Amino acid sequence: MEEILTITLSTLAATIRVSTPLILAAMAGIFSERSGVIDISLEGKLLAGAFIAASTAAVTGSPWLALAAAIAATMSLSMLHGFATITHKGNQVVSGVAINIIVSGLTVVLGIAWFHRAGQTPALQNDARFMPIEMPGVELLSNIPILGDVYAKLISGHNILVYMAFLSVFVTYWILFKTRFGLRLRAVGENPSAVDTAGISVAFLRYRAVLIGGILTGIGGTYISIAQNASFIRDMSAGQGYIALAAMIFGKWKPVPAMFACFLFGFLDAISIRLQGVFLPLIGEVPVQLIQATPYILTVVLLAGFAGKAIAPKAIGVPYVKER
Amino acid sequence: MKIIKLAVVALSATVLCAGDFKPAVVFDMGGKFDKSFNEGVYSGIEKFKKETGIGYKSFEVTNATQREQAIRKMAKRGGNPVLGIGFAQGPAIDKVAGEFPKTSFAIIDMVVSKPNVQSIIFKEHEGSFLVGMLAVMASKTAKVGFIGGMDIPLIRRFACGYEQGAKYTNSKIEIIQNMTGSTPSAWSDPSRGGELAKGQFDRGVDVIFAAAGGTGIGVYQAAKDAGKLAIGVDSNQNYLHPGTMLTSMVKRVDVAAYDLLKSVQTGTFEAGIRSLGLAEDGVAWALDEHNKALITDAMKKAVDQAKADIISGKIKVHDYMSDNTCKY
User: Fold this and answer.
1) pLDDT in tens, B78-112
2) B33 CA to chain A: closest CA distance, Å?
3) Range of the domain at B142
4) Could you tell me the sign of the dihedral formed by the alpha carbons of B128, B163, B293, B301, in that order?
5) Quick one: closest CA in B to A225, which residue?
6) Nearest residue on chain B to A271, alpha-carbon basis
7) Total domain count for chain A?
């Protein structure tokens, strides 16, 4: 019993650690896509954020400066995406893919030029990273069975960016569904000409949406390089931006369902790690590849309309052209 | 007899004077300062340059399409020998070696069957055997772990040698093995490496051998954060986290590169497979000031004994790549 609890808790704690960058990137995707701009470049922005954060932390030793620099970098990439697709009405997918390719190469080139370590950044000491923080009351609750363990291992003991990720979900929900800005943002993704007729600038709204996406991916990238790890390594985002995109679609472009989709994908990842090479009675060796592929299969099933319906914002992918 | 010898010396001297010996090296992605594989080759040929005063041409490949062009260019400009580094350059060397039959080629970590190519491979299973023994002797929980990068036969060879070494020391030992993935991104996913390590720690493992490129960095970091032990790979990575890096399984690519140039210079170059194991000092385990405190005299003695036994043939380490199974 004791052992089962420990394993369950450690798997769930791993789920939270793995899900954090996915949640941040998925929220970024929701802002951008709800305003009608497809954001394939989530992957590239995570990677850019990770690189700038690790470099800044290596030079200054301050994780907060690193976070700020990473956000600045990802926001400028968002501006680039916006400039290409909103101002110049370029193809949004092409622009996103271009950003991914540029970042993948540029981080390595800059890394070699700055640190001479084949694109790696120097390993960081603990005070230059976001380290796990212990929440108050762990000692107090430790005597209570189960609850004490859950509090100590699951809720406490993560770094501050994890809590920021959770906060971002509720902030996203609040902005999108409870503020005037959010209402307009959703409207611009469904019917931009109506918004335009009402005298609101479509371009300005969309720019703000992709910039918020930049902030969130900057935090996500920082988490990957200086909280989860202690240095930047080439292509270290390893497809998490794409998984976040899938989670966002799986969550039907809504913040809270998207968060749960991230949890589901994170949980499948955590469990596949723990089940690799394990022999279970009756089943034999666990087919981890199947578990790893599950998120994508689920997304395809959902998109094909077999389980529920994922309806994208109506004006997504279409640059807004004012009628003359 | 003496005359013939003299003639040979004179001939080889004239050959050298004619400028036929122009070493050329094509580094692979990662570049010559990658703190690992390529840098090992770089230090080997730099040593050769210092000793002989003979310079060399080099090129650093930065994307996959450059490999063949770079190797062909080196051969065209009279490079001899042309050394390619890493298994990924295999097809390119194979093609260009056919186009320049009079030039000597060499490749590290891959077998290319051409009459003018020397294929330098390492017996990683022998080195992994030794670090497997060290892992078990350092483990307090009788559980040791292995984390591989991309799931390819070369990495299975590491895993299989490690397993044999571990079982040799303690036949009841439990070994937990994980592969990071089945695509090239498995070489550069430290987050996943860290999670795999944490997963193994949760299951009671306290020493992990990671043969996973950049992914390994995450494993070593996780070991440091958890106060457990990790084993590095390819080059000596003990310095990364002194105190939690038990040792490193080192491939002496520097020695291999140096020997290659020397053999071409002295005219003893031979095409075919050159396999470097413990006997040739091609693989080794690293002991330096960073891990001195972790290795006891008894551990060192046991490993040195096993090394001697492997060289003498008393212990046979099964090579996974010989039959693609790990039955021994």
Assistant:
1) 898 999 998 889 999 999 999 999 999 999 988 99
2) 6
3) 124-250+296-323
4) negative
5) B191
6) B199
7) 1
